[in-house]
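Good morning,

Both structures are done.
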Amino acid sequence: MSCKPVVIRDDVLNDLATRFLINIPDEDKDDPLKLCSHIEVAHWFYLDLIRPEDPALPGCSMKEFMATIFKHCPFLVRDSVARDLDTLQSQWKTLKYRRPTRGAIILNQDLTKCLLVQGYPASTSWGFPKGKLERGESDQDCAIREVYEETGFDIRALIRSEHYLECESRDSERASRMYIIPGSPGGDRDIQWFRVEDLPRFKKDLTTRQNLGKNPSSFFMIIPFIRSGAHPYSAEEVDIQLPESPWCGRWREEDHSSSLGCVSQALCPSPAHEEILKLSLSLLPPSPSEDS
């Protein structure tokens, strides 16, 4: 292996192997690419839950973590490709980036702000809460799960199967679908509301730099969706303005009062996340209209 393992205590590696690797199906152990997906889950668990409790533990990339796991659990190295870490990671990343992603565009009550989460670890990019579609999982269930995992907000009662935007990446042939969730009352990743009108619609859009002091490239993951949508949204007429999207007309014709402002308390974010959202709202710079 060309990548050196990192030094993680045996008790931590044993715990991770027991939780995520030892009891997976034999067919997944025999398929190095499927095995990598299980190792990725263990990697996130290590970074998100174990390491914050013990900062002395080292941080590591996915590739370094894979090398560490294969060294600690040699019984997982069942195929020659697993012995060539560079080849394995390259094949796995290709497969991973072709997997569809599902998430949500969560808008506030007057539809002027949307919720974004910051990439992890040590990333300056912002994007909608989303994640990979798992085997046997429906599009909606994936969006619900990923949004809850990343924000603590349960959209189960708000999501509608026909209300979504979808973009397909030409280079990876991957479709990314975002469900529209209007009327929201408000991890270590930062979670913040952004005005829709401040978000970039193309790579060199200066609006974001002028209004937020951030590079448009920090929002590269959401540009296709912002470019596709109404900009800004109107609370009186919720219209994403996509002629090819059949739900646009129905949205205008239907009564959405139940979706706008009538959110059950049980669906609100947990107190910690709710506080983050309120703080972020208060820290947003005033829009030009508010200054005048």
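Second structure follows.
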Amino acid sequence: HAEGVEIRYYSVIYDAIDDVENALKGMLKPVYEEREIGTAEIRQLFRASAVGLIAGCMVQTGHMRRNAQVRLIRDGKVVAEKATIESLRRGKDDATEVNHGYECGMVLSYPNIEVGDVIEAYELVEVPRDQVKKDSKESGNKGNDK
């Protein structure tokens, strides 16, 4: 350490490159990938003075989870991109999760819902940097050293 500068010695240039790459990866913001957790169709709408509009749904694939990010799809078009499930109930009981094949009631953060709308729930999963790099640099010049 001379004046706050770290000095490292390498016998092979590739070790130095790998070290610099790893140091840079640590400085980058994490990359997130969307992973679908389930879909549900709105079959009926209910009004409740306390919470507003409740969507009576049938979970079609996967599961619905309270506080999950959701996308609202109407006639094949995305109507709301980043809504959340604010409340989830199975019958009269609060639920954390409702699996496919079951009916549930939910209140979304997006109020403009209609019968027939599809609710697509997803989660954001952090993707390791080395997996991101492989995808974007696949056609890089590995092996074309000058």
